[in-house]
Amino acid sequence: MTTEKHQTKGIWKVIGASSLGTLIEWYDFFIFGSLSIVISTKFFPSDNPTAAFLSTLATFAAGFVVRPFGALFFGRLGDLIGRKYTFMVTLLLMGGATFLIGCIPSYETIGFWAPFIVLILRLLQGLALGGEYGGAATYVAEHSPNGQRGYWTSWIQTTATFGLFISLIVILATRSLMSEEQFELWGWRVPFLLSILMVYVSYLIRKNMDESPEFKQAKSEGKTSKNPLKESFANKYNLKFVLLALFGAAMGQGVVWYTGQFYSMSFMKTVMHLHTDQADTILGIALLIGTPFFIVFGWLSDKVGRKWVMLAGMALAILTYRPIYEKMYQLTNVENKQEITDKKEEFFEVVHTEKGKDEIVTEKVYYTDRSVLTTTKTKHIVDNTTQIISKQTITIAGWNYIKLILLIFIQVIYITLVYGPIAAFLVELFPVKIRYTSMSLPYHIGNGVFGGLLPAVSTYLASNAQASQDSEFYLAGLWYPIIISAVCFVIGSLYITKNMYSKNL
C-alpha cells in the first residue's frame, strides 16, 4: 500500500488543515447547544419556559438525527470524487447555516417562522457535519503510516472538544464585554456571526490541500467504487462490519461523549442551578486539562489494540456515572449547607421598558462553604397585565469548585478513552474504495442518533421523575447513557476481534 511507504514528513500540514476545518465545524455546531437556554427564550414562545427549553433541545437533537443522511450523501461523494472537495463543501454549508442562525429575528418579531427557520438551519448543519468527520478522519488516516493511525487520527479527535472549548471561550468573552441585558437582547448573536470569518480562513487553507495518497492511487488504477452505497450496505459481508461498528463501538462512544460534554453542562445549569458563566468555565477547564488524553489513548490503541481502550471507557461510565452525578448535585444542594444568617442581602430596582416596567427583587443568601444563592424575581408590568418570573442560581468556591472540575474531568477521561481510537478503528474496518461511506454512517448514527438524542431524552426522563416526586430525579436521565453503553459493551466484547480488520491495515 502507498501508506506503508508514506513517511510522517508533511503529515502535520495535513493534520493542521484537516483539524482546523473540523474544529470550526464543531464550534459552529456547539454554540447552539451552549446557548440553548438563551435560544429557548428567543425563538420559542416564552409563556412556558420548560416547554421552550425542551423544544430547543429537540431542535438541537434534530441536527444530530439528520447526520446519518449527511453521511450517506457526502460519504458517497467522497468515495466517488475524492475526500478533499467533499469536505470543503461541508465546511461552507455548515458555516453559512451557523451565520444565518445569528441573523434570524426573534419569535416576538416573526412568530412561528423563527423556530421553523432555526430547525431548517439546524438540519443543514447536521447534514454538513455528517459529511465532515468521515472526510477528515479518512483523509488523515490515509496519510498516516501503518501502526500509527491511532496516534495521528487522535489529533482529529481533539477538534471536537476544542470546538466546544472555543465556543465556551467566545461566549464568555462576549458576555464579559457587555451587560447581561445587552447579551440577552442581541449579544448572543455574536458567536454565531463570528463563525463566518473562521470558515473563510479554513476554506483558504483547505483549498490548497492535495488529495489523499490512497484515494489517488485507487483512482489512477481504476479501483474506485461506481456505487459506494450499494457496495457498502447491499453487500452482506460489508454490512456486517457496518452494524458491528455501530452497535459494538460507535453507539456507546456517542452516549459517553455527549454525557461528558453536553449533559454535564445542562445538568450544572438546569439541575444544579449553577451560574451559567461558572458552569461554562468549569467545563472549559476540565476540557482543556483532559484534551491531551485523546492523543495518549490514540497512541495506546496503536500498542494494545483499539477494542479494550474504547470498551474500558464505556465500562467506567456504566459503573460510575450515578455516583459522579450524585456528588455533583450535592455540591450545590443548599439543604446540606449552613447559612450565614447575618449576611443575607436584598436589592430592589425598577427598569422601564418600551411596553411598561420591570420590578426586580434580588436576594443573596451566603453559606459557610462560600456558596452564594441568588434568587431574582422579576415582575413584568405591561398595561394591566402582570407576569412574575423567578430565577435561582448558585455560585460555588474553594474546594467545592475544585471538586466539580475534577468530577467533570473524570468524565472527559472517559470520553478520551472511547473517542481517541474510534477514527482509526472505523477507517481500518473498510477498504479504500468505500471507506468514506462505510465508516461515516455508523459513526453518525452512533453519535447523531444515540448521542444527539441524549440531552432531550435524559431531560425528559429527569422531568418525569421529578413530576412523580422521585427523590433522586436528578439521576434519572443517566439511565439512557448507562443502558446504551452496557449494550454496546457486551456486543463489542463478544464480536470485535483484531483480525477482522487486518486486511485494511
From TrEMBL:
Which Gene3D superfamilies does the UniProt entry name for this protein? Answer: MFS general substrate transporter like domains
Every copy of the Major facilitator superfamily (MFS) profile domain together lies at: 14-504
Is Transport given among the entry's keywords? Answer: yes
TM ranges = 12-39, 51-74, 86-107, 113-131, 152-174, 186-205, 241-261, 281-301, 308-325, 404-429, 441-461, 473-496
Top-level lineage group = Bacteria
Q: Where in the cell is it found?
A: Cell membrane
Provide the alphabetized UniProt keywords.
Cell membrane, Membrane, Transmembrane, Transmembrane helix, Transport
Membrane topology label: Multi-pass membrane protein
UniProt name for this protein = MFS transporter
The taxonomic lineage of its organism, from the top, reads: Bacteria, Pseudomonadati, Bacteroidota, Sphingobacteriia, Sphingobacteriales
